[in-house]
Amino acid sequence: MINKIKVTLFCTLLLFLPLSFSNANISVLLDTRTVSPDKLPPSYDNVVFITWDGVRAKWLNQFSESGYLSAAQSIMNEGGNYTVRIDKNIPGTDQGLAALETGYGPDINLIAELQFPDNSEKLAIPDGLTISERLKDKLGDSITSGMIFPWGFHELPDWENDDMIQLGNTTDPIFENIRIGKDVDYWFASENVTWDKDVAETYTAAIDPFINKPPYVVGWSSPVLRASYLGQKAANFISDNADNRIYLRIHLTEPDKIGHKSGEAQVPFATGNITNEYLGALKDSDIATQMIIDALKNAGIYNNTLIILGTDHGFTKAGHDDDPYPNQSNIENVQLAFYMNKPLGFSEDGILSTTQIAPIILSVLGLDPRTYSPAFPDPLLWDFVEPTTSSSTTSTISTSTSSSTSTSKTTSST
Predict the structure, then answer these.
(1) CA 332, CA 182: separation in Å to the nearest integer?
(2) 53: which of 196, 256, 266, 385 fits an S-S bond (Cβ 3.0–4.6 Å)?
(3) How far is CA 359 from the centre of its chain?
């Protein structure tokens, strides 16, 4: 009898083992994450959200794990490495930034194509949808927000009339509706540089920060495009505002710019090799990231600050314009690595969508993403109710949905 029981139990285990294994695989393939019900998000005083423009997960992971990108490595080791997918927009800088800043796809944030090309339709994210706007609306002066970007989204100099104007095709307008001093406390981009039309580096950035003709062969001679320059601006912002809660958003364009000139878009990447120029741009971005970490620590606010380090889109040797997941031609265009320095209460297994980053930031800063309209398109990662002592079950929720939005692709990329 005992032997029969043993045989029966063994056969039962054999019967269920494949099912369990299969379900585990299905859980990953369907982009699901198991979470505890009745779970509140963690709470942090500050959030610093850093993106490096145009970095595929392969290089970020490889050089962070090796220690070459030591700042990125420290963020990853302290918190976690999360896979984040582009599933609602064409991979590109404007589309990626809009999804990250709002939590919506182009059906709501309106940014379906790049705004840089001369023939592109110039559109702005609608009023009230960005993280900074929502924080200032709910938290007011109890939080200080800052946005630091490499190029101007607002006005640039009008040399002839000694004035500031919107220069149409040379300026990216996606953040035009963010009012400096009201929707964001601190803004820095190319329009904040002290301009002198007789100084090559500032004149170049004013006319076209991505100009590629002599004497600006490097293509980004303006200091505002340098990661180290922007990193110092971010460090100054932190030290100047450490007596209040902080939300800091900084975007570093160096990897993308160098990638288009002498890196990802060049022949060496066909063999899987990384160019020295592109690797140097990653290192420059890492140094800028370390400036931010040091500033947080020096100000005594690091321990209660969530740092998110990610990218707006992936990048392959052929460029990054592609379809959203799951219809992309190359998974490395749409499957990204995001590092976070604090635990968020859910596993690194499974896959997030880029449109889940904004609700995460709002949640950990104390806002309830369930209250916003339009509703966020992806399932939320917490239940936003007090935990109960009687609950011990788990539930599985989808964290990434495929987009059915059809958008036309552009041939130019940034």
Answers:
(1) 38
(2) 256
(3) 13
pLDDT digits (tens, 9 = 90+) for 213-264: 444 334 445 667 789 989 999 999 999 999 999 999 999 988 888 877 765 5
Residue 3, C-beta contacts closer than 8 angstroms, at least 6 positions apart: none
Residues of the chain predicted below pLDDT 50: 1-38, 157-159, 162-170, 206-220, 265, 267-270, 389-414
0.90 exceeded by pTM:
no
Question: pLDDT value at position 126?
Answer: 97
Token reading at 289:
């990231």
Q: According to the 3-state scheme, what is the secondary structure of the chain?
A: CHHHHHHHHHHHHHHHHHHHHHHHHHHHHCCEEEECCCCCCCCCCEEEEEEECCCCHHHHHHHHHCCCCHHHHHHHHHCEEEEEECCCCCCCHHHHHHHHHHCCCHHHHCCCCCCCCCCCCCCCCCCCCCHHHHHHHHHHHHEEEEEECCCCCCCEEECCCCEEECCHHHCCCCCCCCCECCCECEEECHHHCCCCCCCHHHHHHHHCCCCCCCCCCCCCCCHHHCHHHHHHHHHHHHHHCCCCEEEEEEEECHHHHHHHHHCCCCHHHHHCCCCHHHHHHHHHHHHHHHHHHHHHHHCCCHHHEEEEEECCCCCECCECCCCCCCCCCCHHHHEEEEEECCCCCCCCCCEEEHHHHHHHHHHHCCCCHHHCCCCCCCCCCCCCCCCCCCCCCCEEEECCCCCCCCCCCCCCCC
Residue among 213, 204, 209 at smallest CA distance from 225: 209
Contacts of 150 (CB under 8 A, 6+ apart): 53, 189, 190, 209, 224, 225, 230, 251, 252, 253
Q: What is the pLDDT of residue 341?
A: 97
Quote the tokens at residue 388. 């109960």
Distance between CA 343 and CA 52 in Å, rounded? 22
Which tokens belong to 105? 């796809």
Q: Determine the pLDDT at residue 382.
A: 86
Write down the pLDDT at residue 395: 31
For the chain, percent of residues with pLDDT exceeding 90: 49
Q: Residue 51 has what pLDDT?
A: 98
